[in-house]
Amino acid sequence: MAKKGYLAQDIQVLEGLDAVRKRPGMYIGTTGNKGLHHILWEIIDNSVDEVANGFGDTVTIELLDDGVARVTDNGRGIPVDKHPKLKVSGVEVVFTQLHAGAKFDSESYNYSGGLHGVGASVTNALSEWLTVEVAREGIKYRQEFYSPEINGKIKSGIAKTPLTVVGKTKSQGSMVTFKPDSRVFETEAFRYGIIEKRMREVAYLNKGICIQIDDKRLPLAGGSGQSNTFKFDGGLADYVSYLNEGKNVLFDKPLYIEAKDENFEVAAAIQYIDSYTEELYSYVNNIPTSEGGTHEVGFRTGFTKVFNKWAQSNIAKCPTLTKEDFQEGMVAIIAIKMQNVQFEGQTKAKLGNPEARQKVENLVVEKLDELLSLRGQKAIADKIIQKALGAAKTREAAKRAKDIARQKNSLNNANLIGKLASCTGRKAEFNELFIVEGDSAGGSAKQARDRTFQAILPLKGKPLNVEKSTLERILSNEELSTLISALGTGIDNDFDMSSLRYDKVIILADADQDGAHIRALLLTFFFRHMRQLVVEGHVYMGMPPLYRLQKKDEIKYCYDEKALEDGRKEMGKTALLQRFKGLGEMNPEQLWDTTMNPYTRALTRISIEDMAEAGKRISVLMGDDSSVRKEYIYKYADFNKVDDFEVK
């Protein structure tokens, strides 16, 4: 159990602060908008870890003018006594020493998402100034840090003042206020929507804690004027209900279980919807594990075992069902909290602890057995079994369809060869597949490409909306079955990344309404049936220019309105302007120079920052409920945007 006597001696120092300012990408990935929010997450995560371990119940985030952010919690307060080794206060250790924290053992925190101890010090190093106020044992303390320029060199995150007693207080906890350094992040600003989305997720994952967000910035400073408070006493059950808003659910309230075994906790919420796909999202110590891991394996095994046992006892001659049969229509969240977490890779995307599988399986079996034995649960269990039995029949039909598809769409098949303009290179790590809208653009792309590593697959019309389609229908769809065959990986449970024939899969569609719809349909297909392709960064959007400016022999391509504005200022009002309405309007040379040449083109890699939110958004935008979609569009679409230029 985490001890209440949290002192400076509990903070373990692994190494000193080193060159964060010089190489910020090593610590926060990027100095763009994502990196800016990363230094905020580091401070928030410290406060969340404090309250999630039972020391307090509220975290408050405030966005202030001049780019300043403030995070407050009512936890124990950062230690203020002197560290026995470094002879400075615990506050100064936390904010000036890299790899310093109390999260490397189980004494001060039972569970933590911040396992590397770089957070607070990195935020301090990349801030113009940072102030810490600590309320602890009736006394309020304050210390200031800053990053001045001395003799032409920036000295990062040094103490401007010593830790000072500023008075008595009845409150308890820590408050960190900081201004991200514009010398690092330039004009980037905090976005309320990004913070709100993440804090909602954190509140769902930590049942009962209160997270408050308040945007106090003036409108001219980018303020939204919004504020929100998240507190979910239902935890994961509320989370699943949120994800299923507007969907046809098989039963009203999600099944919810939670259990604890020494220093290991598991909670899960499950609900079924009228759908052909599965949505399972998992977390470890509040960290999303988008690539799954041993905890997901344990959950699926335990769930399948319990419901097979129930079916054998309650349904005559019921066949043994597989975990795949129970996946169809399942929406589930599983969250575990454990010590000594072992993630696979730098992204913390997959749990590797082998003991987590057995612990999760055992606890899920125990608690689901108890839950299904309660009065009134038989009707829910019946619905889940009937859904699984229907999925088993569909699975058999899909298996037959897959066998036919494999024979029909092998690379040697004339049908595929007739559509796919393959490349001559046989090393997948160098090859690219362009999925192009229509025969006209396909013709230009085939002429423009470098055939040694670029393949072209034109689509006829719009792809199938897989959000509303069975697997059998997907496999019988000519365009999608051709795409599946061209990639070579298979789909769903048969997906095999090692068989991928192209390192980059590039969606190349017109910059108009139809092109946007095609991109959405293809991304829905990849997310639902080839998700690992997106997770591992193989899916891109080609970025053809919107405009072409010409003045005599000078030509400039503009990829957005800002570039057009800058280009017209540079070339003058007499420059001729051409707006490309579609890829087919470009000749092969233009298409190569602007969109396909690896040295001059711009590509956007598709990534998933929040798996659960991405799934919900796809359901809203691509699902059956038009009223939910209309509400979303009215909330977020900009109906006032107009072109203010004249094409000559």
List keywords for this structure.
single chain, 648 residues, alpha+beta, Heat Shock Protein 90, Ribosomal Protein S5, domain 2, 9-stranded mixed beta sheet, 5-stranded mixed beta sheet, 21 helices, 28 strands, 37% helix, globular
How is this structure best described in words?
The structure is a single chain. With 648 residues, the protein is α+β, with helices and mostly antiparallel strands. Among the domains are: 8-230, Histidine kinase-like ATPase, C-terminal domain (Heat Shock Protein 90); 236-394, 2-Layer Sandwich (Ribosomal Protein S5, domain 2), CATH 3.30.230. The chain is 37% helix and 21% strand. The chain contains 21 helices and 28 strands. Strands 2, 3, 5, 6, 9, 10, 11, 12 and 13 form a nine-stranded mixed sheet that branches. A hairpin with a 2-residue loop joins strand 5 (127-136) and strand 6. Helix 13 crosses helix 19. The longest helix is centred in the middle third of the chain and has 31 residues, at 378-408. Mean pLDDT is 86; it is low at 14-18 and 408-414.
Portion in helices: 25-40%
Question: Rough shape?
Answer: globular
The number of distinct β-strands equals 28
Quote the CATH topology of the domain at 8-230. Answer: Heat Shock Protein 90
CATH level-1 class of the domain at 8-230: Alpha Beta
DSSP helix count? 21
**How large is the radius of gyration?**
27 Å
Distance between the termini: 73 Å
